[in-house]
Specification:
By secondary structure, the chain is an alpha/beta fold.
Length: about 350
């Protein structure tokens, strides 16, 4: 254990909330609006997951991720995904180097994936083979090249952006990879007042500087200690059952079973429009995100409302819609809305 790690005192719930809000404040020096998206992004970081960010061009996706890296004072890597990008361009590769005495040997040259915060810009522009190069790093904090496995230093946080309006020349992420992202965060168009503030802030003589929240060399250890604190938040059995019921309700035919069991539950849209519902990872995302929400409110236990507030971020990208949904203009957000309303009626 390093000296920097041992010198850090065990944080409290108030320490967590104060640090979280400080990071938020620094991010909003550069990002105007998107309050809910920024909160969900940070919730995923402290819950130990990764985030998929969707938004049309110009809504601040890349700026948001870069600003987070500055605020946290952690190493930052960026991958601009293109159709000709290869897996080795992400993970790194072995090259032959010549020493001064003429001796040659293989040496591993790490790729941009070796950092604390990784921005995968427009991930749906890369081929599935290249997209899958991120899977091992996201799930196991390691990268395997050839016969050698290289560990990644925690914290490791992947934020991948999606452009939803340009479909030509893109490759939709496989369902298995979508499931690896804890949350999917949407960046909407700014309102008129926010747009005026953006114009003022970006066309003036000087932009507001983002200051690091953590001192150099301490950021990684402090973030890891806050992540451990999140896991200590209590979850009552009925809250766990509530999250499990919500995830099962997104699965076709299970929603009918729920309706038979609890007369107050009717989720017809799931059986009609959903091909595949959320995996068990959806329940884990709900619980971990709810733990962060509880700590922000100064509580050491999760409430029903914490689960409800994270439902869209945790479940939308895990719901696979069928052709009927597309023809009837039904999206995953509408399905989650109906599921939350129905499951909320089952609270004891």
């Amino acid at each position: 254990m390093s000296e920097a790690h041992t010198a850090i005192a065990q944080p409290t719930i108030s320490d967590f909330a104060r640090t979280f809000r400080r990071i938020q404040a620094e991010i909003h020096k550069a990002i105007i609006g998107h309050e809910e998206a920024v909160e969900e992004l940070l919730a995923a970081l402290f819950a130990g997951g990764h985030v998929l960010i969707e938004g049309v061009p110009g809504t601040g996706k890349t700026t948001l991720v870069k600003t987070l890296g500055l605020a946290l004072n952690l190493s930052f890597g960026r991958i601009q995904f293109t159709v000709d990008l290869m897996p080795a361009d992400i993970t790194g590769t072995r090259v032959i180097l010549s020493a001064a005495d003429g001796h040659r040997e293989f040496s591993f040259q790490p790729g941009p994936i070796f950092c604390h915060i990784l921005l995968g810009d427009e991930i749906n522009r890369a081929t599935p083979k290249t997209q899958s190069a991120l899977l091992e790093a996201m799930a196991e904090l390691q990268v395997t090249v050839g016969a050698t496995t290289y560990p990644l230093a925690p914290p490791y946080f992947v934020m991948a952006t999606l452009n939803p309006i340009e479909m030509e020349g893109t490759y939709p992420l496989p369902e298995a990879q979508l499931d690896r992202f804890l949350f999917k965060v949407r960046l909407a168009y700014p309102g008129e007042e926010e747009l005026v503030r953006i114009i003022t802030a970006t066309t003036g003589p000087e932009a507001s500087g983002v200051e690091p929240v953590f001192a150099a060399g301490e950021a990684a250890a402090k973030i890891e200690s806050l992540k451990r604190l999140v896991r200590e938040v209590l979850v009552a059995p009925q809250i766990e059952q509530y999250a499990a019921r919500m995830v099962r309700a997104t699965q076709p035919h299970n929603s009918r079973a729920l309706g038979d069991l609890r007369n107050r539950v009717k989720i017809d849209a799931v059986d009609r429009y959903v091909s595949f519902g959320s995996s068990p990872r959806g329940a884990l995302a709900l619980i971990m995100g709810a733990k962060v929400r509880a700590m922000l409110d100064g509580r050491a236990n999760v409430a029903y409302d914490d689960i409800d507030r994270l439902a869209h971020a945790a479940l939308e990208h895990r719901i696979m819609l069928n052709y009927a949904a597309h023809s009837d203009n039904v999206d995953a957000a509408q399905i989650v809305d109906q599921v939350v309303r129905a499951i909320r009626a089952t609270r004891a």
